[in-house]
Write a structure and sequence with these properties.
This protein has twelve helices and 13 strands. With 273 residues, it is α/β, with parallel strands linked by helices. It folds into two domains: 7-84 and 235-272, Periplasmic binding protein-like II (D-Maltodextrin-Binding Protein, domain 2, 3-Layer(aba) Sandwich); 87-219, Periplasmic binding protein-like II (D-Maltodextrin-Binding Protein, domain 2), CATH 3.40.190.10.
Amino acid sequence: MNNKKDVLKILHAGALRKPMKECVHLFWDDYPHVEVALDYAGSRACAYAILEGQDVDVVALADPHVFEDMLVPEHVDVFFVFATDQMVLAYDEFSQNSSTISKDNWMDVLLESRASFARSDHNLDPCGYRTLMVWQLAEKFYNKPGLFETLNQKCGQEYIYPKSIDLGGALLEGKVDYIFEYLSVTKQLGFKYIGFPERINLSNPAYADYYSQVTVTVTGKGGGVSLVRGAPIEFAVAIPKKSSQKELANHFVKILTSPEGERILEDCGLISC
């Protein structure tokens, strides 16, 4: 039996907050005396924390590209995709024009009314750059030249939040009327939402080539830039090389990818892989 000094340190994307907490409870069924330190941020912010030396045993991110771009091979040998999702436009009954917005007029409502909308920071969080991709794809799909730039200009800095889970808080508090969010987080928080066509919502691997037409430039802390290309949404998990609790970390990853873990993911609105 592990002694009480054992600590499993998990760092994860904010969008995974609920399923990760529920998987921790399953983990405690097997290791009741192990302390679990659960921390979260935008996925790129999580990667920066590892690059800056934070001690992490399990890292779960909202985009495998972040592993490829920032952590492999120096800090992570291999990562595993375990879930998928899609982008939606979330709102509640108190949002401006919530009684009239639809899948056909959402762009007009956002641009031609006093309604405010928010996204997460594309430099820190995949939900942020995926929102920018959705806007670009919508411009192509609906043949509306200039749509991306118009949306981007209206969504000013005051409507950009560090991570996707922060968007939910902003909507709950009435700071904004609409948020570009993952379907899983939207369902967990009980929001209403507008679904986008599959050619826009980044959900369908069959449209991977179509999604890849759009790109977003992200800027790192040191000023370096990376180009992120549109791709189906995937969540991935890894055990960093420097983990001091590899046995415990492996057990947690097994739980996350087990039938019980898959049920948790599905209950939280994700699609398990």
